[in-house]
Design brief:
The complex is a heterodimer of chains A (284) and B (403).
Chain A: H1 31-44, E1 52-56, H2 64-67, E2 71-74, H3 80-90, E3 95-101, H4 102-108, H5 110-119, E4 124-129, H6 164-171, E5 175-180, H7 184-196, E6 201-206, H8 210-214, H9 222-230, E7 233-235, E8 254-261, H10 273-281
Parallel strand pairs in A: 1-2, 1-3, 3-4, 4-6, 5-6, 7-8
Antiparallel strand pairs in A: 5-8
Helix pairs in contact in A: 1-7, 4-5, 5-6
Chain B: E1 11-16, H1 17-28, E2 30-35, H2 42-54, E3 58-61, H3 65-78, E4 81-86, H4 88-93, H5 95-103, E5 108-116, E6 122-126, H6 131-136, E7 145-147, H7 152-169, E8 172-178, H8 179-182, E9 185-190, E10 236-238, H9 252-267, E11 276-279, E12 286-290, H10 294-307, E13 312-317, E14 319-321, H11 325-332, E15 337-342, H12 347-355, E16 360-364, H13 373-387
Parallel strand pairs in B: 2-3, 2-4, 4-5, 5-8, 7-8, 12-13, 12-15, 15-16
Antiparallel strand pairs in B: 1-9, 5-6, 7-14, 11-13
Helix pairs in contact in B: 1-2, 1-7, 3-5, 10-13
The chains are: A alpha/beta (284), B alpha/beta (403).
């Protein structure tokens, strides 16, 4: 039975490399929603689309850059932020967004993450946190909650995970928010604000990973895992960030919100346009 | 344009090699330096930290060398000439990103002022033991372009040349300097800005054609035109194996096609890269193959040999990679024996043995001080004994190690 087509294109089609779709992500993964929120935020930002540049590291989230019909850079594991820094300093007109995973940004790239926040360089970092290394099949990382089972924590994770909003607030980020991939309206708006915000902004997105993480922790299918996050979620913009760490317990809330929005002197070094002209065309 | 310091310090200067390297970068139009302090390259960073902002460029002191080199690659894609400088331990940390630069065809310059290794080794003292690391340090089939300055003047000249080669080949170019040259102070003649040759980066014209493929080379250079970000091109640049569109590809033919092109774009044009200097080889029976600071003490060794009645000369390798195979082979056919003098235990000797028609002896020292001329002289004497009569019997498999 043929269905009636209600639209032959999506409003953000032009921002996606439709010739690369379908994407590689598993059914139930939150990354599709995150990517969609980002393309909406790009359009809503009011900044001309060609100036938006996406930089990713390695991993499932690292593949986002490759599906965006923007100038996009898929770098090495952990190094999306210094790559983005170089782009931004060399070409300050660009609106540079880093989209990468929790492992890429906070484990192998953790040093760059805190130093970029300390410098307050004008970057937007979207960190998709699925509590594990999904691309390699579900190993523990620095965001894996205590007690969670993964292929490398078969008896439960005994390490304390990072509380990323608290870490980034301490390091100096000027904008910090956290949503789940189910909170698409809030997430979209958060991304828009983060993109517009001068300085280092950080958006954490909690995303289900039914294959890599959910299955090992009896969280069910993707939708069940989403509901596991959704029913525990509370929104508290004024939360004490020391208290927003994440656990596996049904009894403990997942605190979401726009936690930080403050102003601080941004990172200064930038290549001047006249300097590029001078190099190209000789001494002015 | 605001009043600034002069970008090109035209005239006679008296400066150390690291400083001359920094001035070479400025003269070449470098506008971004991402670095991390490490002896004996720190003076490069210090000079550029002061000079770059004054000429409209940017110096960023990164949190580590992983960040330094990656920010340099990002800055190159942002549209400027960019560089970092380091030494052994930092160079080791940069290996993965050098592969990223090669894979994504990113023009950039990496200066390694070599010190004694392995590991932390001799932070303040000379060695030349990173030759093979420059060639093979990053995983995968990769090409390398590496230049070895032997004077402060060459620290300037070869830095300019490194930027030109980087843009010509869209490839990371390594300057393999050594501590003795980096910390040596001598005269450097800086030309007028208009006399500094600058190979332009070949950019993709805008508007792009309908069926645009950012990683398809348009001609026999095998080098694609570089797309600028922010202009609406929408190019995807990935460290993954990719097809001509820049899209990730996981099939064997695409991988072979890409890696071969990256390899061949350099292998088929080595004549544009390789540079050597011959000193006193016209009548030589023994050729000393050397590079960097060791080529300076080799001159003394050659004088000692000539005083002792042995006609020796020098083949100085200015380009280390791609290796000057033809030049070494040609010299080996004219002499009775070759001595390879280097501050390591046989890295260049191995390459020379691979191509030489004459017996090859080593004059090696692991570093910590300049190569003593006496060690090279001893090897020249032994080589002369080898080379007497039927000298081209076989290559020596017994390296001369000394001290």
């Amino acid at each position: 039975m043929a269905r009636e087509m209600v639209a032959d294109r999506h409003p953000t089609d032009l921002l996606l490399r439709s010739d690369r779709l379908p994407h590689i992500w598993c059914p139930g993964c939150g990354l599709g929603s995150v990517m969609s929120c980002y393309t909406d935020a790009v359009q809503a930002s009011g900044i001309p689309v060609p100036l938006h540049v996406a930089v990713s590291g390695i991993g499932c989230t690292g593949r986002v850059a490759g599906y965006l019909s923007l100038d996009s850079f898929h770098t090495t594991h952990g190094r999306a932020i210094p790559y983005a820094l170089g782009l931004k300093v060399a070409n300050p007109e660009l609106q540079v967004t880093v989209i990468s995973g929790d492992g890429d940004l906070s484990a192998i790239g953790g040093n760059h993450l805190i130093h970029a926040a300390r410098r307050n360089i004008d970057l937007t970092v979207i960190c998709v946190n699925n509590f594990n290394y999904g691309m390699t099949g579900g190993q523990a990382g620095p965001t894996t909650p205590r007690g969670a089972t993964t292929s490398t924590t078969p008896n439960g994770n005994y390490e304390e995970p990072f509380n990323l909003p608290h870490l980034l607030a301490t390091a100096g980020a000027v904008y910090i928010s956290r949503w789940t991939s189910l909170h698409v309206r809030q997430l979209r708006e958060s991304m828009r604000v983060a993109i517009k915000k001068p300085g280092f902004s950080f958006v954490e997105v909690l995303s289900p990973c039914p294959v890599g993480f959910g299955k090992a922790n009896d969280l069910g299918e993707g939708r069940d895992e989403m509901w596991f996050y959704r029913r525990r979620s509370i929104v508290d913009d004024n939360a004490n960030l020391a208290d927003v760490g994440l656990s596996m317990s049904e009894d403990e809330p997942i605190v979401l919100g726009n936690f930080v929005n403050r102003d601080r002197a941004p990172f200064r070094p930038a290549v001047e346009k006249w300097a590029i002209e001078e190099v190209l065309h000789g001494e002015a | 344009m605001p009043a600034t310091e002069q970008r090109v310090l035209t005239g006679n200067q008296f400066m150390n090699g690291d400083t001359a390297c920094a001035e070479g970068a400025l003269a070449a139009g470098c506008l971004y330096f991402g670095g991390y302090p490490i002896t004996p390259s720190t003076e490069v960073a210090e000079r550029l930290a002061r000079r770059l902002p004054a000429v409209g460029g940017a110096y960023v002191q990164m949190e580590d060398e992983l960040g330094s080199i990656t920010s340099v690659i990002g800055a190159a894609w942002g549209g400027v000439r960019s560089m970092t400088a380091t030494s052994g331990p930092g160079f080791s940390l940069m290996m993965e990103a050098i592969g990223l630069a090669a894979m994504t065809e990113t023009p950039c310059v990496i200066v390694n002022v070599m010190r004694g290794g392995p590991s932390t080794g001799l932070p303040t003292l000379v060695a030349q033991a990173d030759v093979m690391q420059a060639r093979w340090g990053s995983h995968g089939d990769i090409q390398a372009i590496a230049l070895a300055p032997s004077s402060c003047q060459e620290m300037f000249d070869l830095t300019v040349r490194a930027f030109n080669l980087a843009d010509r080949f869209r490839h990371p170019v390594i300057i393999l300097a050594d501590e003795a040259i980096g910390h040596l102070t001598e005269r450097v003649v800086i030309p007028a800005a208009k006399d500094i040759v600058r190979t332009p980066r070949r950019m993709q014209p805008i508007p792009i054609p309908v069926a645009y493929e950012p990683f398809r080379a348009p001609d026999s250079t095998l080098v694609p035109l570089m797309p600028a970000p922010g202009k609406g091109i929408g190019a995807h640049v990935t460290s993954l194996t990719h097809d001509e569109r820049g899209y990730p590809a996981t099939d064997a033919p695409a991988h072979d096609r890409l890696v071969r092109r990256l390899y061949d774009k350099i292998a088929l044009h080595t004549d544009e890269i390789i540079d050597v200097e011959e000193v006193g080889l016209e009548d030589a029976e023994i050729a000393v193959v050397t590079f960097g600071s060791t080529s300076r003490t080799a001159k003394r060794a050659v004088s000692m040999a000539r005083e002792a009645g042995i006609r020796a000369g020098i083949l100085r390798l200015i380009t280390l990679w791609p290796f000057p195979e033809e030049q070494v082979r040609a010299v080996s056919q004219r002499v009775n024996a070759i001595v390879v003098a280097e501050l390591n235990l046989g890295q260049v000797r191995r390459e020379v043995e691979r191509v030489s028609a004459a017996p090859v002896l080593g004059a090696h020292h692991a570093g910590g001080a300049l190569m003593p001329p006496e060690i090279i002289f001893q090897s020249i004497k032994e080589a002369a004994r080898h080379g007497q009569g039927n000298g081209r019997r076989s290559a020596s498999d017994r390296p001369l190690t000394a001290v």
